[in-house]
Structures are given as C-alpha cells and as structure tokens.
Design brief:
Pfam families: Hpr_kinase_C (PF07475). The chain has 143 residues and is α/β, with parallel strands linked by helices. It has helices spanning 11-20, 111-122, and strands at 2-4, 32-36, 39-43, 52-54, 58-60, 68-70, 74-77, 90-94, 97-104. 15% of the residues lie in helices and 27% in strands.
Length: 143
C-alpha cells in the first residue's frame, strides 16, 4: 500500500505500527513507482532502503525491508475531520494504473486494522456493501 500525506500526517508512525505487526517496510519518505508486470510497483530509492524517520529518535537505518512490492491500495493520511463517514469510491492513478484510494486518520489506534480490512475487501475475502470499496466485488459465498 502507498501511504500519502503531508509532513506530520502520521505516515511514519503508522508504518512503525504496521511493521511491528508483521508488515514489511518498502520505503519511508520517498518512493519510486514503476510499471511492472501489469501492476504498479513501489521501491525505495537505493540510498534510503531500510531507513525510516522516527520522530523523537531520528533517522533509523538497517531495518529489514523489501526491495520492491506491488501496490493494491493508496491511502491518504488526513486529519480526523477530513475522513468521511461513508466515502465515495476514489482512485489513485499513476503510470497507467488505477488503485482504490481511501482516507484515514493515521494516528487512530484502529488505523492498521482498517487497512487490513481494506486489503481483504480488495482481495475479495470480504465485501464492502457501501463506501470507499463498494465497487470491489463481493467474495463468492458457499451455499
């Protein structure tokens, strides 16, 4: 997933919580996008690979990271008041690819779980009856 937002929006803090929960770091602060194998892919600039800025600690390096990953979701990290209760579907477009786009308040304790739910809906494991991912097909249900 691609985290978007201005400085101070909570992107790096959310990334710390995600990696603490088993997710893998690709890039922090800067990302290189490319068209690869029918998917939009993200990588860190080589000089920043394995690094993350941690407010209050500094620029940390040597973290385990992935060289590159396909993207399935774009996430706008916004102020709590800017997160719509029932959002309309939106898209992030780059290099001829379109990704579902959602908005969250990154500092919320529930933010990592919201991202897991969004990715589950995109993968077809659960459905979204109304809201940002409503056009994602429902998973097949056994009778």
């Amino acid at each position: 997933m691609l985290l978007l937002g201005p400085p101070g929006a909570g992107k790096s803090d959310l990334l710390l919580r995600l990696t603490g929960g088993g997710w893998r770091l690709v890039a922090d602060d800067q990302v290189v996008l490319r068209d690869g194998g029918g998917a939009l892919r993200a990588a860190a600039p080589e000089v920043l690979r394995g690094m993350i800025e941690v407010r209050g600690l500094g620029l940390m390096e040597g973290l385990d990271s992935e060289a590159e990953a396909p993207l399935a979701l774009a996430v706008d990290c916004v102020a709590r008041g800017e997160v719509p209760r029932l959002p309309e579907p939106a898209r992030f477009e780059a290099l001829g690819h379109a990704l579902p786009r959602i908005a969250i308040h990154a500092p919320d304790a529930s933010a990592p779980r919201k991202l897991e739910l969004a990715l589950d809906a995109i993968a077809g494991r659960i459905g979204c009856r109304a809201g940002a991912l409503e056009r994602v097909p429902y998973p097949e249900r056994a009778p």
